[in-house]
Amino acid sequence: MVLRGREDEKKLLDDLIALGVGLLIAGSRGWLTEWASEAQQQLNLDSAETIYEQLFFRLVVLIGNFPHVTLLAIGAFAYAALEGTEGIGLAMRRRWAEYLTVIATGVLIPFEAYEVVHKVTVLRVGALLLNLAVVGYLTYRKRLFVGI
Length: 148
Description:
This protein is an all-alpha fold and about 150 residues long. Helix content is about 80%, strand content about 0%.
């Protein structure tokens, strides 16, 4: 901005004084605090949660509104995709598929152990022992997780 004389200087001074008075009035009435709080909320700056936590909570709310049949279908589809990926990887003799098999099988072991503790049946004990054997065999024989 180029000042061209006394009139421009006076206009600039008047504008700065008006801005200062406006900010003082807005600050004394609490408007600045309200505006800042609203801006923080709109920009997700006021949250103590990270963006990942916010996305997770929104996903939980979204999933909470689904009917049970839809959730079962989504779970079945996800499990089928996992098993299909695992099977294709094992058929192609990929190392990542062995890790995926161990992790996917190992994640279910605590749930199976819980079921066995609650009600002991031959089928439950057999499934638990089979999964433990698969995880143990793959981990030992294929030397997975060695040096990690």
